[in-house]
Amino acid sequence: MIERKHFLEQIKQIHSVNSVCAILGPRQCGKTTLATSYRQSIEEKCYVFDLEDPTDLEKLSTPKLTLETLDGLIVIDEIQRRPEIFPYLRVLIDRYPDRRYLILGSVSRDLIQQSSETLAGRIGYLELTPFQLSECHDLRRLWERGGFPKSYLGKSLEISWAWRKAYIATFLERDILNLGLSLSSQEMRRLWTMLAHYHGNILNYSELGKSLSLSNGTIRRYIYVLEGSFMIRTLRPWFENIKKRQVKSPKVYIRDSGLFQALLNIQENLILHPKVGASWEGFALEEIIRFHDADQEDCYFWATSNQAELDLLIVRGSQRMGFEFKYTDAPKMSRSLHSALEDLKLEKITVITPGDMDFLIHEKVRAVGLKNYVLSSKQASLLI
What we know:
By secondary structure, the chain is of the alpha/beta class. It is built from 17 helices and 14 strands.
């Protein structure tokens, strides 16, 4: 078992400010386990409702009657199955301000809009991801298997592979229906697989629509669902006030590297596969975003029509952090990096590689291995 103390501390911080802490993340990423660990760490009564259990689902068909008499921490798992609960929670929170709620959901805020609208000022959000490199330290295993606990911790690569294939099938055949969405599982599978081929590239909705014989509106709706259930990430383009023509469409990534490999049937010999560079880019990009606790709205990529580009730009106020992701043991300075430094007015760019390195390739460009970046920076922060 891998302890996730960082996330436990985040729950405590959210509850020190808000009555409700919402833990959101993909199915089977460890939300229920984290909630159990949190319950065990506090000294008060706890009541748990799992909305995948028909009995608990029925109990919360009358949420006000069921919850009003309970005094202590109330945990509601798979909250997206009863979104109508949120208005009742607001009433209970205002009536009993000392009570605390922990709600777990397998979809983003956008897919359960009632929470942000009804509980404004009363709720804090925590996105729980699958395992991160800073938690498990085994880069090769994490990259190949992905971070979902049952995939990463599987006793063999074959067991991990079987779990990932079953996860994809379950998501398509059951989880989408549980979200109340009438989407075709076959169409969604075809799109999801095609997005794996687009991984790290610019989205072309028209091209996807033609290939799948679906309308642009249907493609956009399916992508919205995949993004809202944490399966894919779309990166918006950053626009700088320069004369060069800049790319205006988003890029797409499969968020979990293990699922990316499963969607493309890369069961072994990832290093020899033509998609190894794309796989590394997506894996390292997710790790850097998570390491910096960057919100989706802080993350961009940048590209121009003359092939200058930057894989990831994290913007927070006046601070800009630029990253490139290269599957190479000999990173070099390029015209594209020069353009990014000049056009985006960056103080530095970090080139993230899979190796064990840390050196300057330009006065403003540093090449560093992902493990060195994440673990060394983490250790340095603990010493401050």
